[in-house]
Amino acid sequence: MKSLPETLPDETNALQKMVLDYQSTVDQLQEKLKWYEEQFCLFQHQRFGASSEKCPDQMELFNEAESILDSLKQDDSDLEETISYQRKKPGRKPLSKHIPREVVRYELPEAERVCECGHALHEAGEDKSEQLEIIPAQIKVIEHVQVKYGCRACEIGIISAPKPAQPIPGAIKSTVNFSKY
User: Which residues make beta-bridge pairs with 160?
Assistant: First the structure.
């Protein structure tokens, strides 16, 4: 930008020319400022604004496939797809029912079947677990049933008979007993 002279001329034409020069310089600088502000706003929008390129009519560009599907659905409305498989459920499969079974019940002694309030405990359910015992040339399932007891009078809680400790907790197989042979 031009600097102002130390002394201004006395002529009107010279003063008018200087004012016009300064005005054109101011106009140019205002245009530059406007351009920089627009660039700043554009960069701000690119950096912090939404980055999606969606437009309202964008989905109409791909309607051909949907229109073809709609016409096929109207033609084949009586045909429906059925699912012919079942999903596998997680967890351990039960042991075969064909294997001979031996049921071992663990019950509380008669003396312990009395609640703290003095009433008799009733049988409230069972916890069952299966264990595979392999005897050479013989296989059988030992079904452990822990009987649960509860009091109908006070309903404090449920007590179950203890089960002996297993050689491998949570295992399906018992120990091999060679002493029988």
Answer: 148
Read off the pTM.
Answer: 0.34
Distance CA 80, CA 46 (A): 48
pLDDT of amino acid 27: 95
Amino acid symbol at 52: S
Residue 93 DSSP code: P
How far is 93 from 96, CA to CA, in rounded Å? Answer: 9
Nearest to 17 by CA among 26, 28, 27, 9: 9
Structure tokens at 57: 């009519």
Encode 141-154 in three state secondary structure.
Answer: EEEEEEEEEEECCC
Query: How far is residue 165's CA from residue 94's CA, in Å, rounded to a whole number?
Result: 22
Q: Identify the residue whose tokens are 């916890």.
A: 127
